[in-house]
Design goal:
single chain; 285 residues
């Protein structure tokens, strides 16, 4: 019997380079029914949209996802961690979110789904120059079935340090994707950052400059990231923090995501899968 952990993946979504790297350290299967008993399973791009069915099939053999359905729902709903009074907003680590736009003061805002955005269509489906633009952008987003099912949130627009401006006015920012893990069976365990990399994989010409800034700012950004992780960690074992530097020099959390569903950005697939396999192998043993 294999002592390697199992990765449940979706072949037509998982990039080939990720599949090749993961296969070195995991037993790979696209079928929940082929997962061995009594395992904590790494699911990559393979849980949604039938999360309950996947978890239920694993439970038949005593196995489970790293993040339970309830934990996934917590991290996938931005209102859980960024609504006014929530853990990250209260600590000043992220802008507030609202699920309505009544009585907002004049200013610039973004509109997105509670989990996903349409960032690539920035000036049509995300950024609002004024309060008057919010219902216009919201109406367009509600034509997207996936976003509409999530529900919409409004957040104040925080200008970030920017490398470039892409199509549709999309800012290419000083933003980093960081993956965090704690033992799924110990909610008091301290989350540890297992991988990090420049967010904008479609703009590799700026990766070197972004890495240099990260190194310069390392004590500050890690203090902020560790504080955010300590607040999110008790609620979900395997998560992503997207950290960005504002124009006035602060580091803030832009997004929190379920790490099972999050793309690697510029993170090395080889290092990512090696590290998470080591952590899960410790659970198996």
């Amino acid at each position: 019997m294999s002592t390697r952990p199992t990765c449940l993946y979706r072949p037509y979504i998982m990039p080939p380079e990720e599949l090749a790297a993961a296969s070195k350290y995991f037993d790979m299967t696209p079928y929940p029914g082929q997962v061995p008993p009594n395992q904590t399973v790494l699911a990559r791009y393979s849980v949604l949209p039938f999360a309950e069915l996947v978890a239920g099939e694993l439970a038949i053999v005593g196995s489970k996802l790293i993040n339970s359905i309830e934990q996934h729902r917590y991290v996938a709903d931005a209102m859980s961690w960024s609504a006014k009074g929530s853990c990250l907003e209260r600590a000043g680590l992220t802008p507030w979110s609202r699920d309505n736009w009544y009585d907002l003061p004049e200013g610039q805002y973004i509109v997105k789904g509670k989990t996903n955005s349409q960032k690539s269509k920035w000036n049509k489906l995300m950024f609002c120059q004024s309060v008057a633009d919010i219902p216009i952008v919201a109406g367009r987003l509600l034509d997207n079935e996936m976003i509409a099912q999530q529900g919409l949130i409004v957040r104040p627009y925080i200008p970030l340090e920017t490398f470039d401006v892409g199509m549709n006015g999309q800012p290419v920012t000083y933003e980093y994707r960081t993956f965090w893990y704690r033992n799924p069976d110990d909610s008091d365990a301290t989350p540890q950052m297992i991988s990090k990399g420049f967010y904008w994989s479609s703009w590799p010409e700026y990766e070197e400059a972004a890495n240099a800034l990260w190194d310069i700012e390392l004590p500050v950004v890690m203090e902020r990231a560790n504080e955010a992780a300590s607040l999110i960690g008790p609620n979900v074992p395997f998560f992503v923090l997207d950290m960005a530097r504002t124009k006035d020099g602060r580091w803030i959390v832009i997004e929190v995501n379920d790490a099972q569903q999050s793309a690697l950005s510029c993170i090395s697939a080889e290092r990512f899968y090696r590290r998470i396999s080591e952590l899960l192998t410790n659970i198996i043993e």
